[in-house]
Give the backbone structure.
Amino acid sequence: MNYYVMTLFPEMIEQGMNTSIIGRAMAKGLISLETVNIRDFSVTGNGRIDDYPYGGGAGMVMQPEPVYRAYESLVSRIGSRPRLIYLTPQGRVFDQSMAEELAKEENLIFLCGHYEGIDERVLEEIATDYVSIGDYVLTGGELPSMVMMDSISRMVPGVLSNQESGQYESFQDGLLEYPHYSRPELWHEKQAPPVLLSGHHGNVDRWRRNQSILRTLRRRPELLQNGEYDKKDRKFIQSLLHDEYEEKITEEEKRILAKLLAI
Ligand code: ADE
């Protein structure tokens, strides 16, 4: 996976991407990163790349020509025109399935805006995707691009040392992940769930799956409809509905589960 980031703050991207798992993946050559400083493509000669907005109003607008030149110089070096993701709170909201889809690309370009935004005309010419990382406004596209690169990189084969951890984490099957426990067995008078110490893999898997359903119900009930439920899952859901499970659930939660069984 080769990432290209068009930005006014290349050092921010480089520092952020050089550590931990992503840094290791870059050292291994599984991922590469190149930043392009849009300021180097200023057309005024003094490094200026923004101007006042036509029609007035607050803030400055990034001019189209420096962005366009930065883009053209980049794609001529790459030798193709990869997808170009413009980070904006007005975009489609990034999620795990988008990360999985983007991880299949060989090259990705991220365009980070600043100030009030980028002149619309250049976006119309070069942007293929408009992506937001959530319904809040940040000062620029750098952090969103790093969030996306981090999550996309996890999906690139070989980046995670243990492929399993990539397979079984939250969202992979549409539900939240089960809780984790390690030594000691007793901590602050809390016992680790005995089933996890039983050595019975089938029971451990069943317990984890049940916890995953329960946790999603408690924390992100709207995600439950993304899941697929087999006979054993349905049996567990029935047991929750009939108060046969050790953890009791509310009437509202029961209403959600009943709807799920009807699907
Ligand atoms: N730029 C500013 N805020 C953003 C957000 N939430 N997502 C993507 N890009 C942004």
Q: What stands out?
A: The longest strand covers residues 83-93.
